Amino acid sequence: MRHIRNVGLVLAACLGAAPAATAATGTTATTPANSPAGLGRYYDQHLSWGGCAKSPDDTMGRDLDKAGVQCADVTVPLDYSKPRGRTITVAISRLKATDTRHRIGSMLLNNGGPGNGAVQSPPEFHGWMKKTGPRYDIVGFDPRFVGRSTPLDCGWNVGTTLFSAGLGRAGFERQVDLHKGLAAKCRATDADVLPHVSTRNTARDMDVIRGALGERKISYFGYSYGTYLGTVYTQMFPGRTDRVVLDGAIDPREFGPRLLAESVGENERALAAWATWAAGRNDAYGLGRTRAQVLATVDRVIKKSARGPLTVGTAPDAFRLDDSQVPFVLLAGLDSDTDASRASLGEQLSVLNKAAAGQPTTLSPQFAGLLRLATTGEQSAMGSAQTAVICGDAAAPRDPEVYWRTIERSRAAYPRFGALNNNIGPCAFWDRPRERPTRVEHDAKALIVSATGDPRTPHKGAVALHGLLASSKLITVKGANRHAVYGLYENACVDNQVNRYLATGKLPAGDRTCSQQTG
């Protein structure tokens, strides 16, 4: 994974559900039958395709233009129960099929998060798909309130809510105050919008996109949170999908504010595996010559940061990190077991170890960017949108003591991540969701991809989703501590099977297992 795909956080009360569109049985090509009155104008809208660059310094837009990608805005209702009311826009991009004689259709992309956009992704996917790429219109979109779509920004002073409760009660109380304040800030700035930020509404937007593209069915590729979004879409709009790939899959029954707790064991095991790797490179990183020594160094750094914040870097990229933030650095660095990813975390821990010893340090641009995410409001919009979706999907326990008791119980087994993965978040102080979580009641053909050591969305979630979708097939990458595989992990076994499915529409005859090694 090249982006940090934070999957977040289980039980919702229904405060008045918006009506959902159903599968089409009528004669129109794109508008589902039995849709609420007034939705037809969204499905039938004309899209004004044009260039993607919004300004001379829009590097991403210029790159898309050079790649032949076109961009457009899709108009959707803020509240699907009031289609004649306020509207918002969803930004989409399209790399059109060049093999028009063998064109398959449109494929919609989602990069997870929630909070990650995919407007930038069609050229990359086109390359990964090899001979199949030219047969698709590859369509990226930034979900509602993300990226180039109508924005949502609560004006936070942090860009993520993934912090540890720290080593003691005082640190936890600071976390309670922080997250209560973040929720209050969103309520103060965007109270009229927050009730409509949810996965179900994003799925409705997807179906409007399908209609506006003139497609009866749409193919879909989702990573991480995008697997949950894709699952929800298949349930809300059964029969509307062609080929579906869900990579880094989530058990839809577990999605909600406490989802991260499901991966605490995988995080500890991934850290231990990384520690073994780092021990073999002590000359480079100076963290210890055995796994135990490296983990002891990690624990020492966390304890030192609890006694007083560590100062890392030099102005203008100087940061102070305490025991709520150091575990976040660990979590962010464990998304993959490639040498490049492990080296990046090794360099970061080497910096933190030096800072703990009072030595001056310098930061790589990558590390500085990660710390800006955790300590400044530079990525406030991303954090705001991500949190709004998670809190808008399912309610969280509201009593801080529930979290504290879980944290305390988890410390012995999960000394570095128990206090992070089980920590309180803004959802504890959020207004309750308007709709119930989506239940899987319809079968859907899908190709599910998962690694056995996935440290973000545990493999057991993929197995559970596979069990819920009887017609699905599961590709398992055995022995890999990796989140998001296709294209990103360069595993030919996975890439070839996914591309074969996208080309033929035929799922493998049975489940498949790929080795950790590429090829």
The chain-level mean pLDDT equals 93
How would you spell out the order of helices and strands?
HHEEEHEHHEHEHHHEEHHHHHHEHEHE
The fourth-level CATH homologous superfamily of the largest domain is Alpha/Beta hydrolase fold, catalytic domain
- Which CATH top level class of the largest domain fits? Alpha Beta
- Helices, by number, come to 17
The quaternary organization reads as: single chain
The number of domains is: 2
Helical percentage: 25-40%
Report the principal-axis shape.
Answer: globular
Structural class: alpha/beta
Q: Widest sheet: strand order?
A: 1-2-4-3-5-6-9-10-11
| Extended strand count | 11
Family: Belongs to the peptidase S33 family.
GO biological process, one term: proteolysis
Signal peptide: 1-23
Protein name: Putative exported protease
Summarize the structure.
Keywords: Hydrolase, Protease, Signal. The chain is an alpha/beta fold and 519 residues long.
Write the layout of secondary structure elements.
Elements: H1 40-43, H2 59-66, E1 70-77, E2 87-95, E3 105-110, H3 122-128, E4 136-141, H4 169-190, H5 199-212, E5 218-223, H6 225-236, E6 241-247, H7 264-279, H8 282-285, H9 291-307, E7 310-314, E8 317-321, H10 326-332, H11 339-356, H12 365-375, H13 380-393, H14 400-410, H15 418-421, E9 447-451, H16 459-468, E10 473-478, H17 492-504, E11 512-515
Parallel strand pairs: 3-4, 3-5, 5-6, 6-9, 9-10, 10-11
Antiparallel strand pairs: 1-2, 2-4, 7-8
